[in-house]
Every structure is written in structure tokens, then in C-alpha cells.
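lol ok so funny story. i was supposed to be doing the assay writeup but got distracted and ended up predicting the structure for this chain instead. priorities right. anyway since i did it might as well share w the group, maybe its usefull for someone
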Amino acid sequence: MSMVYLTRKAEFAASHYYHNPELSPEDNRRLFGKCNNPNGHGHNYVLEVTVKGDINPRSGFVVDLRQLKELLHREVLDAMDHRFLNREVPEFFTCIPTTENIAIAIWQRLVGKLETAKLHRVRVYENPDLFVDFYGEG
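and the output, tada:
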């Protein structure tokens, strides 16, 4: 069989701010600049989820696209779209919602939940010229 990689794209809008409670207000401002504003700022994130697997000879698919779409909606979009990440998404109650940490949180929400394919990569674009890839290492 041939290993095939399939990517599904989704978009969500969310707000966040960067703040480390272990740092002083001055250090937070110095480290995070305008991103330390407790009122937050928003992004239109683009998410790409890549799965890998063998093609099912019966269907010709590597994954049931409906199942993948439903998983993305249930685990990611319903939880993060139009949310203030720091205050509404449990992973970010104690973790700074950087693009890096958002990619890891999405991976953790999705890994092991597909029947026929394996999660390969989570890519999160914060804006068109900045994105993070996470492959599950570590």
C-alpha cells in the first residue's frame, strides 16, 4: 500500500492575550508588548490538519471526510471559534495561548480519535505570513 497524506482546512476567529502570571506587570509588558493587553486582540486563524494512512481499497479514501470534518468541528471549532481563548478554553486557563501552544492543544484534542488514519501534522496560521507546524513530538 502507499502512504497518503490528506489535509483538511478550517478557519476560526478567536481572541487572546499573552500574559505570564509568574512575571511582573513590567516584565509582561516588556516581553509581550501590545499583546499583553488584558482586553485581548483577535485573529482569523486558519487551521490545516493533515492525516496519513493507506487508501481503503473499498472506498478509495484514506479517511472518512465526514468523520474528519465532524471531529474538527466538535473538538476545535465549537470550542475555539469566536472565543476569548484565555478565559473560555480550558487549556489556556494556565497556558499562554501563543500560536505554538494553540497548535499543540489542537493536536492533543485530535490525536487518536480517527478510526482509519493517523494524525500527521497540525498547522495553525495566525496570519497569512506566520504559521506553526506541530507533528506531535515530545
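Residues 80 and 98 are 14 Å apart (CA to CA). The beta strands are 3-16, 41-54, 83-84, 118-127, 130-134.
back to the writeup now i swear
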